[in-house]
Amino acid sequence: xxxxxxxxxxxxxxxxxxxxxxxxxxxxxxxxxxxxxxxxxxxxxxxxxxxxxxxxxxxxxxxxxxxxxxxxxxxxxxxxxxxxxxxxxxxxxxxxxxxxxxxxxxxxxxxxxxxxxxxxxxxxxxxxxxxxxxxxxxxxxxxxxxxxxxxxxxxxxxxxxxxxxxxxxxxxxxxxxxxxxxxxxxxxxxxxxxxxxxxxxxxxxxxxxxxxxxxxxxxxxxxxxxxxxxxxxxxxxxxxxxxxxxxxxxxxxxxxxxxxxxxxxxxxxxxxxxxxxxxxxxxxxxxxxxxxxxxxxxxxx
Length: 301
Known about the structure:
Helix content: over 70%
Structural class: mainly alpha
Oligomer: single chain
Shape: elongated
Number of strands: 0
CATH topology of the largest domain: MetI-like fold
CATH architecture of the largest domain: Orthogonal Bundle
Number of helices: 11
């Protein structure tokens, strides 16, 4: 009996391994280990920045201002990435800014993706005047410059974390809605949708059981590709004074504080810039990888 059971289990395990290998290791589409590891470090830093930060990010020490990074002759390992014009430790401020970046990115993508996906599904499924109204709203939103919208909302709501999230959500929901609508238009005419209608399923059940599972992969890819855009947009708003305000710390705010000292303290503006660049690059590489592994043509291999 044991001899009969073992081959069956071994076959199932082998089939499962083959399926996982086909999805995640298809040809040259292998996981970007460095990018995923860097994003994992970013998330861990955001969660535990207060516990692992070497200094208080807002602690002033004017006697120790403009200290260069440790590899410079005048640098020290006490402040590995140097200090700014007020003697604040740049590494600690970058770690504190990581938390703001992750929070803004998470909530902005969740809300903009959720709202945009829902409106895109409604527009594509029902069509008619519903589709016309939603798509005209998308066109209107896309015609408004993002920074102009940020200025208006900042004047009405005031600068801060919540304003940044609202601006990003209002700016990017239309991107999701347009793409999801196109996908729903290609799905709603398939046989299983018609059979669900014949079986008496209402729109809510069809959305939940048949449409949403078929666009989850697209939503995941769109969200991963949007991470870099959200990070740069948040940094731009904070740099212009429309986003995060003191005493909170953000990478864009660090760039704004250091722009007047580029000549004698290049590290104060370079280090947060490198953090933005590496995070956006890692997110984009991960997004490209997800797009490749969810490509229907590859799934046919």
